[in-house]
Recover the amino acids of this structure.
């Protein structure tokens, strides 16, 4: 009797220790993924000036995405609906804590700052931080190959992972002024060149990073139709969404928007392609 | 999914080709008053800068003159066939002020 109580206690202790270990890795993941954004001036400005409706849209769009990442990767070993939701919530907490602590440490958030400013800046950074936390197990060596659900992802699941990858890459550069500047400098020839390079690289990644199953691997045209074209469309859609969120489409005519979407679509399609490597 | 992806990609390419087919025109900037806001620091004229040209203008300098009172503002970018907003502060109601674009740079 005493022995079994001791065993239960020991098991619980080791579970708790493992959970703390997972949590530590989640913080590390949030740091690794979020530092470039936390140290980008435009992200601070956007946190202050961004239309609150758009900030809300960004957070609301982020929640199902984070849940999806918890489903396919997650920072702890536990699986199941309840645990995936818990993982999502904990990842958000990790994102909020990491963003708040570092923005205060960098002196970006001052103690006398209006709450509206501080909340805007932290909320905007918490979503990418939470993404990093959820990818930590995969990225920081916590998962054995074949252990995460992403290996058995369905076709829709693969497309979801592409969207997550492209959002992640797009988010890292979209707030910067360089995106619109490159679009302004680009002639239509440059834009078409970027489209071609984006699709080509995406296709090469799809082939080599193992998106396409064995069947598609023998048929490049099928893989192109199944993964590359939808993947590029997803990258463009994600780019448009992110540009809208950051107000980069305001005051632009259709061709201006399309040109900026193509420019941001380049890193976004690399992100979509690299989703297999990231997630 | 393949069809949808193909359609979106083709649409994007079509817009760019259509844009390439148009003769490019230099920025053609005009400015007009959109709104007047009364604030504790004076009257603020909200002006809309419109670019009818194809090329984007950067560092666009806007000037508003109301009698002796001159206000200036610089707009980072006014995209081709797009618009941007600027704010000019006056002591008096700027309803009768004249607004003009003084100059700009290529991005």
């Amino acid at each position: 009797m005493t022995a079994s109580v001791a065993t239960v206690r020991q098991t619980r202790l080791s579970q708790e220790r493992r959970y703390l270990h997972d949590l530590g890795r989640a913080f590390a993941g949030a740091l690794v993924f979020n530092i470039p954004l936390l140290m980008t001036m435009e992200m601070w400005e956007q946190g202050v000036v961004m239309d609150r409706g758009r900030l809300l849209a960004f957070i609301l769009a982020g929640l199902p995405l984070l849940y999806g990442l918890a489903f396919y990767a997650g920072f702890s070993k536990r699986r199941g609906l309840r645990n995936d939701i818990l993982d999502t919530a904990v990842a958000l907490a990790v994102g909020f804590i990491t963003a708040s602590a570092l923005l205060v440490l960098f002196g970006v958030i001052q103690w006398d700052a209006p709450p509206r400013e501080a909340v805007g800046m932290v909320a905007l950074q918490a979503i990418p931080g939470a993404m990093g936390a959820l990818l930590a197990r995969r990225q920081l060596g916590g998962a054995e190959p074949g252990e995460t659900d992403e290996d058995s992802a369905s076709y829709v699941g693969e497309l979801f992972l592409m969207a997550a990858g492209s959002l992640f890459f797009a988010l890292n550069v979209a707030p910067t002024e360089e995106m619109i500047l490159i679009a302004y400098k680009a002639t239509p020839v440059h834009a078409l060149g970027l489209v071609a390079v984006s699709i080509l690289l995406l296709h090469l990644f799809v082939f080599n990073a193992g998106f396409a199953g064995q069947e598609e691997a023998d048929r490049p045209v099928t893989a192109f139709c199944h993964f590359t074209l939808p993947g590029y469309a997803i990258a463009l859609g994600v780019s448009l969404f992110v540009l809208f969120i950051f107000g980069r489409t305001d005051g632009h005519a259709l061709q201006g928007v399309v040109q900026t979407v193509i420019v941001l679509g380049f890193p976004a399609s690399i992100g979509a392609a690299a989703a297999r490597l990231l997630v | 999914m393949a069809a949808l992806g193909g359609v979106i990609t083709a649409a994007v390419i079509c817009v760019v080709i259509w844009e390439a087919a148009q003769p490019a025109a230099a920025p053609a900037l005009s400015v007009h008053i959109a709104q007047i806001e009364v604030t504790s620091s004076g009257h603020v004229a909200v002006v809309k800068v419109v670019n009818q040209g194809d090329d984007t203008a950067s560092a666009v300098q806007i000037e508003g003159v109301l009698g002796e009172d001159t206000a200036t503002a610089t707009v980072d970018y006014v995209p081709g066939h797009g618009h941007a907003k600027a704010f000019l502060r006056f002591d008096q109601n700027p309803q009768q002020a004249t607004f003009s674009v003084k100059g700009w740079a290529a991005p």
Remarks:
- Chain B touches chain A at residues 1-2, 4-6, 8-9, 12-13, 15-20, 56, 58, 76-85, 107 (CB under 8 Å).
- The mean pLDDT of chain B is 93.
